[in-house]
Write a structure and sequence with these properties.
By secondary structure, the protein is mainly α. The protein has a domain of about 110 residues. The chain is built from 11 helices and no strands. The longest helix has about 40 residues. It is rod-shaped and about 130 Å long.
Length: about 300
């Protein structure tokens, strides 16, 4: 092939380099900082939505992770802390660190879901729970229909209330068993605490209690019989309540336990795999960097 230099195509012109922006002065830097501090961020709904998306600076994998009720800022903080801890290099290591953050975030979501399920179970008291209460207490078959859902257990409630009611009933039963109410002047034979109770309830002194009892009950035997009936009702009500609370407490475990266990195992495996892959990627990179640093360049050969 023949030709001359004049026949060759003209070389393209080399672009003129862009002028570098001169560095900001100290006064300009201070002004920029003051302006940034005065910024209140996005104010419109659209602007806030964009800001939430922008909060995930590394969010290639986690862009659609955050659901309603969760905080993108909290996830970003978790991600930033993991980035600072593992100091990934390159897209692969950065993605693996983000995968670790996603696994931890999903595990936290799992714990919240489990707690919500348990709370929901504990607030559920229907026919099945009422039937279980009646069966455990040996009540008649249809007694479950009159068993109400228990109110929330109060910290002020006396845990020994049932035992106290049983003890008080036994004291009234003893008045019959020992013949006190059929003996002359029964009021004087009563325990002091019971005397004080009757005087307070009827609003009379010791001299007028006999007439007050006979006027309201007709006899001391009837007084004791009505008190025994009242204590029987109170004891039965308390027994039902305590059994209801035990049945509700037995529902502390979440439903669909098998499904939750499998899901939790999946989360644990995902976290383990992400950490293992991250360690392997970083070890491979560090080993490669060590080989490059220790490599000795071959001497140049003689020109032939």
């Amino acid at each position: 092939m023949t030709g001359s230099l004049a026949d060759l195509p003209a070389q393209p012109e080399i672009a003129t380099p862009l002028k570098q922006t001169p560095p900001l002065s100290k006064r300009q830097l201070e002004a920029n900082r003051r302006n940034a501090l005065r910024s209140s961020g996005p104010r419109t709904a659209a602007g806030k939505a964009v800001a939430r998306d922008n909060a995930l600076k590394h969010g290639f994998l986690s862009r659609h992770l955050i659901i309603e009720g969760e905080s993108a800022e909290d996830f970003q903080q978790l991600l930033d802390e993991l980035m600072a801890e593992y100091r990934p290099v390159g897209v692969v290591e950065t993605g693996l660190v983000e995968q670790v953050a996603i696994c931890l975030w999903r595990k936290a979501r799992f714990v919240r879901a489990e707690a919500a399920m348990v709370n929901l179970n504990r607030r559920t008291f229907g026919e099945a729970q009422a039937r279980e209460v009646a069966q455990r207490l040996g009540l008649p078959e249809e007694a479950w229909r009159s068993i109400p859902a228990p109110l929330a257990d109060s910290a002020d409630e006396d845990p020994h209330l049932l035992a106290d009611l049983v003890q008080q009933r036994a004291a009234w039963q003893a008045l019959l068993d020992e013949g006190i109410v059929t003996a002359p002047a029964p009021f004087s034979r009563l325990p002091e605490a019971m005397q004080a109770h009757l005087l307070q309830v009827h609003g009379v002194d010791a001299g007028g209690i006999e007439a007050a009892i006979l006027a309201e009950y007709g006899s001391w035997e009837e007084l004791v019989a009505q008190h025994l009936k009242l204590f029987d009702e109170l004891i039965e009500r308390q027994r039902i309540r305590e059994m209801c609370l035990l049945v509700v407490e037995s529902q502390t475990l979440p439903t669909q336990t098998d499904l939750l266990t499998r899901y939790q195992t999946t989360l644990d495996n995902d976290l383990y795999k992400a950490l293992k892959a991250l360690r392997e990627a970083q070890s491979w990179r560090q080993a490669g960097a060590g080989l490059e640093a220790s490599a000795v360049p071959a001497p140049e050969g003689d020109a032939t």
